[in-house]
Amino acid sequence: MKNLADLQKMMKAAQEMQEKLQQELAQMRVEGSSGGGMVTVVLDGQKNCLEVKLDPEVVNREDVEMLQDLIVSAFRDAVARVESEVQSKMSGLAGGLKIPGLF
After folding, report:
1. How far is CA 48 from the centre of its chain?
2. Which domains does the chain have, with CATH numbers?
3. Residue 78 and residue 32 in contact, taking contact as beta carbons nearer than 8 Å
4. What is the pLDDT of residue 103?
5. Cβ-proximal residues to 78 (8 Å cutoff; 6+ apart), any chain
6. In terms of C-beta density within 10 A (0-12 exposed, 13-18 middle, 19 or more buried), how is residue 67 classed?
7. In angstroms, rounded to a whole number, what is the distance separating the alpha carbons of residues 28 and 31?
8. How far apart are CA 69 and CA 23, in angstroms?
9. 42 has which bridge partners?
10. What is each CA distance from 99 to 24, 36, 43, 60, 96, in whole angstroms?
């Protein structure tokens, strides 16, 4: 029975760590940019877009396609940064263990 109690403690600790991680991801703010900082996208740790910043210089009615490309590029940059941050947090939580399906 002691093993069952230990397992329950481990499961509870894992659940608490998961809840803490979810809170941290919701509070995380990561910026991605393109065009030398002319377009910036802010995401949370769950990859929700929170903000898009455009330098007025990049807004040109004659070249909307360039602006669209810059926004997509900034978003991709932000996503890559979020994934890197999450990977770092998960590695720290797992104590360096490589658990199949999680990394």
Report:
1. 8
2. 40-95 (3.30.1310)
3. yes
4. 47
5. 30, 31, 32, 41, 42, 43
6. middle
7. 10
8. 32
9. 31, 51
10. 21, 38, 26, 48, 9
CA distances, 88 to each of 7, 70, 96, 102 (Å): 26, 27, 10, 12
CA atoms in the 13 A half-sphere facing the CB of 50 = 16
User: pLDDT tens per residue, the chain (103 residues)?
Assistant: 578 888 888 888 888 888 888 898 889 999 999 999 999 999 999 999 999 999 999 999 999 999 999 999 999 999 999 999 988 888 776 664 555 555 4
Question: Is residue 1 packed enough to be buried (19+ CB in 10 Å), middle (13-18) or exposed (0-12)?
Answer: exposed
Classify residue 69 by burial, with Cβ atoms within 10 Å: 0-12, 13-18, 19+: middle
Q: Which residues pair with 30 in a beta bridge?
A: 43
